[in-house]
Amino acid sequence: MIKKIFNSAVSKFGSKAKPSTTNKYFQNDQEYLDTLKVYLTTEVYRELYYNHQGDYNSFLKAEEFIDSLHDGAHKIPYLKQSNRIEEIINHQVLEIFESIHSYGGKNSYPPPLKESTFLYRSMEEKVKRCLLIKETHNHGEPIEHPRGFKLHIKPSMLDHKEAGYGLHVEGDIFPGTVIGFYPGHTYDGNILPAQVIMDNDYMIARYDGTVIDGRGWTRKAEELMLKNELHQVLGSSGGRHTDLLRFKNPFAIGNFINHPPAGVRPNVIAYNFNFKRNFPQHLKPYIPNHIATEDKTFKDDSLYLRSLVLVALAPIQDTELFLNYRFNPANKYPDWYNDPDIEESKRRWGERERLSLRMWEYSIEGKVDVGGIPALLFFSELPPSSIAAIPFIYIASINSNGFIDDINSFHNEYINTSMVKNSDRNNNNNRGRSEMALLDRYSI
Q1: Which Gene3D superfamilies match (predicted)?
Q2: How far apart are CA 245 and CA 284, in angstroms?
Q3: Residues 6+ apart with CB under 8 A from 411
Q4: How far apart, in whole angstroms, are the C-alpha atoms of residue 220 and residue 246?
Q5: What is the domain extent for residue 102?
Q6: Any long-range contacts for 316-320 (C-beta under 8 Å, 24+ apart)?
Q7: How many domains does the chain have?
Q8: 12-57 per-position pLDDT tens digit
Q9: pLDDT for 22
């Protein structure tokens, strides 16, 4: 039933997308589709938990809701979709954080294998680490989610040599559920040190060009465990060590999700989430992100931290979670990488059209060619499988000219894009743009 709803509703917009026969692909087409898909999942969640108290059988009998979602979701204005998505995700994030605060947080990462094993400086070192993970069967402690299922970091079921840990589910997850967060230091895309990018496959980017480094975060967590600081220093939930409580958020585990193998569909999506300054003060210490660099030119004073949430896009039961990394099809893929939908990938890496104030009605004012260097963050609908055919989110790119298409600034809160002017840059920013060219090799 859910599969039918998602495929049918999304297909109603399909005719508006630019045809591939023109050899022109447009990111805006994919952005509109992606937002629609996230809207569908969160509406399912809203109906299931708010009106049916989590009773899935009761939900399936709600024919009026199912028919309206099936027939009318594609007609809902873009801005209204975004607002409703934000509303339901905000509610879930607060529920998760209050749960964490109730027991003071805990660490869900596996114990370190040995000192500095995470600091691999070559592919050979990375492969050795992955093999060691599987040989030792190292794993973290299961984490109880407020919705009743458990999350468990343990060796991935993938058999390729670069797969180490994976994030596994014990129990049932319904579409639209916020599963966890992508932790890490946040960087402005134009102020991104080369040493952070190099050989780093734990990086993920947002629509606004913010890049989150999950590798550095995991490394810091391992260092704390090796020094036994995580228990000795963080044994108290207060005091001067509250700045370290972010490492005790057990749901900061998005950096452990793998890309799916051939024939297996991704089941989660990474979606932009902004922690606002009015986020409850007692919960802020558990936010698993920290600003490393930022562009203050168009700073929104209402924002506290930029982050990413991981949301279920299918019914999930007792399996490993997978996120489509969505690499650029213009580049050579790693041997283990399977592209689930090449047309979706080409649209994501296509031209960027300038958005009008009526973007939510899909009104276009112009086009900007962004070339082939990584830019923004989008989703994709994937081939059907036995669970449900629903879409997912991926890495996109920064303009080859060093800017993201200018968007009306008041739209930032809703579509998480920012204005980065195509003007003369100073030497530091010119260096930053060349470093961004490395990013299309990586996602998480």
Answers
A1: SET domain
A2: 9
A3: 355, 357, 359, 417
A4: 11
A5: 2-441
A6: 316/169, 316/172, 316/173, 316/267, 316/387, 317/169, 317/171, 317/172, 317/173, 318/169, 318/170, 318/171, 319/168, 319/169, 319/267, 320/156, 320/157, 320/158, 320/166, 320/167, 320/168, 320/169, 320/258
A7: 1
A8: 544 444 445 567 888 777 777 877 888 899 999 999 999 998 888 8
A9: 64
